[in-house]
Amino acid sequence: MMPLRLTPLTLLCLPLLLAACSGGSGDAAPTEDTRVDHAGEGDTSEATAPRTCLTDGVLNVVWEEDRTGVPGIWFNSSKDGGKSWLPADIHMNHSDAAATAPDVACAGQDVYVVWEDERDGELKNHNIYAAVSGDGGESFSGDEVLLDGDVDGAAMSLGPRAVAVGGDVYVAWFDNSDGAYDIRVQASHDHGATWLTDPSRADSDERGSAYSAWPSIGATADGVVVAWEDSRNGANDIYASSSDDGGSSFRADVRLDAGDAAGATNSFEPRLVMDGAMAAVAWYDERNGARDVLMNVSTDAGGSWTSGDAIRADSDNAGDADSLHPELTTQDGKVFLVWQDNRSGGYDIFERVYDTATAAFASAEVRLDTDADGESQSYYPQIAVDGQNIFVDWQDYREDKDAVGFNDLRYNYSGNGGKNWNGDDLRINSDEPGSSYAVSASAGIVGGSFVSVWSDGRKGTGDIYAAKRTLGDESVYVAPKKDPK
């Protein structure tokens, strides 16, 4: 059955079609994206890797930028869900050393920014630092906090990921302080005022004996769960561990990519979400030849997981095509999952819903990009859910006519919990289609509006842009009028 067609409020007008595509009477008004960073016009610094969190209608954004001559961590926030921003960015790292790979978590008025930092020691190893705000991101405490305890910078700590719930915050990363990389977790239970004396270790094989990396972390009042890639058996498997004492200790870890022999094939990019006692992890997996998207689910905060084989999400013939880069979110016991898939040639975007009440997918997968099957490349989907509204955005290369690597951001949405989707996908960024790059997009919903934040090259180097519009709206590009002279 074809998805129900919902009429968008505005239609994209390519420059050559402006006269015939004016939206009824008069010329279409151009859509304005909002620039988030304040590096200034003509600035040649690169702003990349934006990460976002949304709480109580406040959107917090952190990114990496080299405007001082070395990479640093910058922050801004919006109290109207992405329409307007603080007049000045906040520089988070207070040293001359490079700082990279930021993440942000928030709960109520608490905002936590974490990153990798080279300030300690002479080897330029990375340590994990954090900064804390208790006023919704308007200001941060004066001193950054060293989370990994490595005051001499003797080891390498990488890939910090943070999650906040109530007055608690948890940060996971991987470090080689004991040899090969292990998974570490640090926690605070008083809004970031104090932290555990020593980070906990989540992987339970012998310390430093095998590569464990790229953690994803979730937390609720029911517990804390961490998932990661782990090579203890040969190739990469996906493991998870959980804590019921606030991250002070972790249970024995569990292999999630069940169904083939441990270490027989590679599994990559675990993504974890939690909703109460329910935890879900998705990844992509090579067991069938080409890569498929698999998942595993716990209904007791990581105490136990789906028995038997991991659950396959893509329903074409196993291993016939590559399904990559899953992202997921959860609401009311359902897991909303998206990924990119090249079963038709080029990569398309697919979505599917898993219902933990029935332990089964609620429906068949749905393709969300609405050009011809496999006609162009659509990459890196992101998903957000708010009530019955579902919003998915992605990088789309259909307008890259000269194949130079320029892309736009496009989205699709459902207003009835995924039963039906818009008949046409819609464009987000409002500069000339296919004229630049727009990458590392996030996805969020504020009431009946969507918000995306991304790194954008329209000015020549990377800047951070945001778009907040009513679900169903599409960007309108209007070419500048030529000087008659």
Describe the model.
This protein has one domain (15-32, 101-128, 152-470): Methylamine Dehydrogenase, Chain H (7 Propeller), CATH 2.130.10. It is an all-beta fold. Helices cover 0% and strands 44% of the residues. The chain contains no helices and 34 strands. A hairpin with a 1-residue loop joins strand 23 (334-344) and strand 24 (346-355).
Q: Summed up, what is this model?
A:
It is built from no helices and 34 strands. It has a single domain, classed as Methylamine Dehydrogenase, Chain H, CATH 2.130.10.
- CATH hierarchy class name: Mainly Beta
Radius of gyration from CA coordinates: 22 Å
Give the terminus-to-terminus CA distance: 55 Å
Percent of residues in beta strands: 35-45%
Looking at this protein, list some descriptive labels.
single chain, 485 residues, mainly beta, Methylamine Dehydrogenase, Chain H, 5-stranded antiparallel sheet, 0% helix, 44% strand, disordered N terminus
SSE diagram, text form:
Elements: E1 34-35, E2 47-55, E3 58-65, E4 72-78, E5 90-91, E6 99-107, E7 110-117, E8 127-133, E9 145-146, E10 157-165, E11 168-175, E12 182-188, E13 200-201, E14 212-220, E15 223-230, E16 237-243, E17 254-255, E18 267-275, E19 278-285, E20 292-298, E21 311-312, E22 323-331, E23 334-344, E24 346-355, E25 360-361, E26 366-367, E27 378-386, E28 389-396, E29 408-414, E30 426-427, E31 438-439, E32 444-446, E33 449-456, E34 463-470
Antiparallel strand pairs: 1-34, 2-3, 3-4, 4-5, 6-7, 7-8, 8-9, 10-11, 11-12, 12-13, 14-15, 15-16, 16-17, 18-19, 19-20, 20-21, 22-23, 23-24, 24-25, 24-26, 27-28, 28-29, 29-30, 31-33, 32-33, 33-34
